[in-house]
Design goal:
CATH topology: Rossmann fold
Strand content: 15-25%
Largest sheet: 8 strands, mixed
Helix content: 25-40%
CATH superfamily: NAD(P)-binding Rossmann-like Domain
CATH class: Alpha Beta
Number of domains: 1
Radius of gyration: 17 Å
Number of helices: 11
Number of strands: 8
Oligomer: single chain
Shape: globular
CATH architecture: 3-Layer(aba) Sandwich
Distance between the termini: 39 Å
Structural class: alpha/beta
């Protein structure tokens, strides 16, 4: 770090749990964010200003007017633009030392197989069950920790899935791939604007903890946030012996 970095990140460096060593780990990290919508819009800026200098944004969608109620990476003039390009523009303004790779594609196995060979942590900010299962599968394959979040209506949840830990569950342990779930979309169910900010910021915080190896990330714990009652609950989650994803790997 040069003098400018020491000044920019001084409030991190002052924290005993972080210091110069922790900040250097942040600067060296590569974070992949799947989804540049509500959750990604909240998580990515905090990672950018915290000092993560390599961020890959993956999203196939474009910005429309209904997104602007909650997706703070995008502005009025971004309508019609690829979300990843709109996000890249905003993040690089926040931190000029940042390198953002914008990939306007749906996350698929081939793409993730290539990317995750050089990734510190993945944030799943997607909005569908199929993508979450695929991202989980590839993170287990490559031993990359995954921070998974979701938000719909007034309800949010976040957890850490770290397959490098022997007894840690994966996403398929929580939600079996063979189980049938009714997909719920913001377009039909709605979503409380600050909710995605709360969950996305939690995802960013968990990612930074994983990068620096500090504190106690939500590995094996599912955090539930109810924005109506302002209540938080925690559910302990165990690894399934018959999990079709992580039990095969182990």
């Amino acid at each position: 770090m040069d003098d400018q970095d020491l000044l920019r990140y001084s409030r991190h460096i002052l924290l005993d749990d972080i210091g110069i060593e922790g900040q250097e780990k942040i600067l060296a990290a590569h974070v992949v964010i799947i989804g540049a919508g509500g959750l990604g819009s909240a998580a990515a800026p905090y990672l950018a200003v915290a000092g993560v200098q390599k961020i890959t944004l993956i999203d196939h969608d474009t910005v429309d007017l209904t997104n602007l109620q909650r997706q703070i990476m995008h502005q009025q003039e971004s309508i019609g633009q690829a979300k990843v390009l709109s996000g890249k523009n905003m993040l690089e303004k926040l931190n000029p030392n940042l390198a953002v790779k914008a990939i306007q594609e749906k996350a698929d196995e081939k793409l993730l197989d290539n990317l995750l060979q050089d990734t510190t942590v993945v944030l799943d900010c997607s909005d569908n069950f199929t993508t979450r299962q695929l991202v989980n599968k590839m993170c287990v394959k490559h031993g990359v920790p995954l921070v998974s979040g979701s938000a719909i209506k007034f309800d949010g949840q976040v957890t850490v899935l770290d397959s490098s830990k022997t007894n840690a569950p994966c996403y398929a342990c929580l939600f079996p791939p063979e189980q049938i779930f009714d997909e719920v979309q913001c377009s039909t169910m709605g979503v409380f604007s600050p909710l995605v900010g709360i969950i996305g910021a939690m995802q960013a915080a968990q990612a930074l903890q994983l990068i620096m190896h500090i504190g106690e990330p939500l590995t094996g714990r599912l955090l539930l946030w109810d924005a109506r009652s302002t209540e938080m609950q925690e559910i302990k989650v165990s690894k399934r012996d018959n999990c079709p994803v992580c039990s095969i790997k182990s």
